[in-house]
């Protein structure tokens, strides 16, 4: 099934969305919010699924037109956002460009950082940031939303804990990264709010494309309406979501609603383009000696979408504009 | 006023606690949970405060004995936990012990990492971890809980956003830290669940001890009932909470219920002891050439408390035992 949250209140209002993304129906009789549904998944899943089936058959009396612009993130605020960097050939490429060795452990031990989860942006909300000089970049990723995952869950038993999948735009401030990472404590200021696709879908929606804990379809990313990349998310993903979950829960329980990201989707095949500007700049540098594509400028737009084999949008599109954060907003 | 959450449901049940920590009263007529109160602080504060005044005067009809063992963390799950490292002389000491230079920027630019916030432990809950060899350590800290903080809020305007203060035990797995930090993405597996004091208090409870965005009282830490350290949290704190909040919100809004930590409380004066084992080991190494105090072992207990000038506990005590996380729990 497909679920979304309307922009109402801090946690949104849960709606079930039809497979073709045309219709929606409020789920408040089952769960008021997606977090509430995740907190009580075993009780809510059947009712939500029954509503989804009725909606797809056109039998939902209270259905209304689904509008992605009215969507908050599926989880407008979440309790955890753990972002991996599972396309290791991307890391290798970036390190090569700056002449850094590739520690062999990077191929066997996942990279993961703790991200900010208290405010995910909806799919059409503007990306508001104060300074272009920060080197504003998008990163197209796949993310899973888990149920409760007990500490110590192994890779072999992790996958049944995946409740939903969605797309995310993990915005990064590239020019703040080097100084921040040099301090040793990881990303903080260099990782502002992440944005999410309009709907999150259960794994069964993906059919044979969800295999081996990977989503085997191209992620299409557009910058200012020009195709920027379309790498297949199932190709060159060194660690599957099973492994990422096991990594995340080694020394902690993961509570329901934990979001775990793949890291920027990336294929070795250059012809598939890139899901972030930094990767394209890296390839430019390696191929021509100069990184010519600039980072985002105010007014730029970024769009991310994944289509099934019939060309139908699975998650709806992330479609955002970068705008300058204004000082006046500070007085609110 | 003083607020706590009883262990009921995922978010606890909000109670108001008397100043002397003897009595409590359910606040469900005002806000069911502390998160709900923080989400609507302007509407809830007056009612909670009125209940607190009645409780202190012994006029609360439904008051009951306050039991810290029944407490969850004030926020059993939160949307953000941003932990600073504001006692820079502690960092300098640790770096000196391993022969590392101290970057001058550490004195002017706060260190902060994004921590896991989806499961804070209550004050008397056991610390469950699977492996002593991870180098299990406690860290005694002060933390503030904020309301909504707009992106770009400056140090000068940050302090009114502080809603509550509490103590935290930021457990660290010292032997996992070096490899994790070497990967460059910061802490993840090396930072398991953090524990909180029974009550969180509004700044006015601290009187003249809350000054200059710092809490000027000793934090008393006991390992196996032996005093381990009692440094004054207002001494040698290089960055106040105003600066830490401004650092955290440079490129993001902070949503209500964000927890911001001071980092391990530490004084240059060695006679005040330490709030973590790592610091004591560092001093042993510098003074004697050998770090002799071991990290925690299963069965060890740690206690943290802060007393006012009359010897009365302000936040109640964190009082935890370290226990081995059992494989059987994985089947739950």
Report what the structure shows.
The structure is a homodimer of 332-residue chains. By secondary structure, the first copy, chain A, is of the alpha+beta class. The first copy, chain A, has two domains: 2-66, no CATH class; 80-324, Fumarylacetoacetase-like, C-terminal domain (Fumarylacetoacetate hydrolase, domain 2). Helices cover 17% and strands 24% of the residues of chain A. Chain A is built from six helices and 21 strands. In chain A, strands 1, 2, 3, 4, 5 and 14 form a six-stranded antiparallel β-sheet that branches. In chain A, strands 7-6-19-10-11-13 form a six-stranded mixed β-sheet, with helices on one face. In chain A, a hairpin with a 2-residue loop joins β15 and β16. In chain A, α3 (88-97) crosses α6 (277-288). The longest helix of chain A is centred in the N-terminal third of the chain and has 16 residues, at 41-56. The two termini of chain A are 38 Å apart. The relative contact order of chain A is 0.18. The model of chain A has no long low-confidence stretch (mean pLDDT 96). At the A-B interface, β7 of A face β7 of B.
């Amino acid at each position: 099934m497909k679920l979304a949250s309307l922009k109402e209140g801090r946690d949104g209002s849960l709606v079930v969305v039809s497979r073709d993304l045309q219709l929606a129906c409020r789920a408040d009789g089952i769960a008021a919010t997606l977090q509430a549904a995740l907190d009580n998944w075993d009780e809510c899943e059947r009712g939500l699924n029954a509503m989804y089936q009725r909606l797809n058959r056109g039998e939902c009396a209270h259905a209304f037109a689904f509008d992605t612009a009215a969507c908050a993130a599926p989880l407008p605020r979440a309790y955890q956002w753990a972002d991996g960097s599972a396309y290791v050939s991307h890391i290798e490429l970036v390190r090569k460009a700056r002449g850094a060795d590739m520690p062999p452990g990077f191929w066997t031990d996942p990279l993961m950082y703790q991200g900010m989860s208290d405010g995910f942006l909806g799919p059409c909300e503007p990306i508001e940031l104060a300074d272009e000089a920060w080197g504003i970049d998008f990163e197209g990723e796949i993310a899973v939303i888990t149920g409760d995952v007990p500490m110590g869950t192994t890779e072999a038993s992790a996958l049944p804990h995946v409740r939903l999948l969605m797309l995310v735009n993990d915005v990064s401030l590239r020019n703040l990264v080097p100084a921040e990472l040099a301090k040793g404590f990881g990303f903080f200021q260099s990782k502002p709010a992440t944005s999410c696709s309009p709907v999150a879908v259960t794994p069964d929606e993906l059919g044979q494309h969800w295999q081996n804990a990977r989503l085997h379809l191209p992620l299409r990313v557009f910058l200012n309406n020009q195709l920027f990349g379309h790498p297949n998310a199932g190709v060159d993903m060194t660690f599957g979501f099973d492994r990422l979950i096991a990594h995340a829960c080694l020394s902690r329980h993961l509570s329901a609603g934990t979001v775990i990201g793949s890291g920027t989707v990336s294929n070795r095949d250059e012809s598939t383009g890139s899901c972030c500007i930094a990767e394209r700049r890296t390839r430019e540098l390696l191929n021509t000696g100069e990184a010519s594509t600039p980072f985002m400028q105010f007014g730029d737009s970024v769009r991310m979408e994944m289509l099934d084999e019939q060309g139908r949008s699975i998650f709806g599109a992330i479609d955002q504009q970068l705008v300058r954060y204004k000082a006046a907003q500070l007085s609110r």
